Amino acid sequence: MNLVVHPFFDPATSSWSYLLANPGSGRCAVVDPVLDYDPSTDSLSTRGADRIVELVEANGYCVEWILETHVHADHLSAAAYLKQRFVCAQVAIGEHVLDVQAHFVPKLGLRTATDGSQFDRLLRDGERICLGHACGRVMHTPGHTPACVSFLFDRLAFVGDTVFMPDYGTARCDFPGGDATALYRSVQKLYALPGDTRMMMCHDYPPTGRGPRFSTRVAEQRRSNVMLRPDTPVAEFVAARNARDRELEAPKLLEPALRANLAGGRLPGAGSAKGTLAQTSAA
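User: That's the sequence. What structure does it adopt?
Assistant: Structure tokens below.
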């Protein structure tokens, strides 16, 4: 495959979004797009998403997919906004989003369905995703949440929050439905990919001395991940992961992010960050 990856970094949430393009066919997919939200002023902006729009238009691409690796709890998704801009695109997420909706929709008192109907496609493990003649597949990688999936295209793996850069480790597993044992198995599935496969991060929290990076190789992860390597015993990882999770605070944008992202990036209510996308500004 002659695919091209364009990364976009959101420093406010340390998030990476991607435009994955097949220049030969002009088809592309957007992965994990971010909607700018300032909790101090309760204001929204499409500045980051508009960078993706500009690149799509500059290259004459056709957006076929807007792909979510999971229901994000640390940033608001720009999926609904991009769907307005690219009406033929399909917003897709793993089919186990139903489990996440079943838990959080009543807990948050949301007036939204729990049948996944907010998304155009609910993706099954092993399902194919095509950009013209270049096709990838969906890999169910639960653990961080029960709905997490990774998207595999040749030597590219968009892994969501399943695993981070080797010097940071893996995702947390303390959200409802999270499971450190399931995460261990998911990461080992990713480690079974060819060693030169590029893992595309959803976040990076770099230590002092290095800037944010958006990718690493499977071989580097196997060799250097500080929390989980192929020979790490599962009990050791689970104990370390659970201990680490007990020290973590909840994500700062947890509630506004879930309110939007459980509904496919649509913002319920009115008058604030819970309002409609028509209230967003590119300023």
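The longest strand covers residues 15-22.
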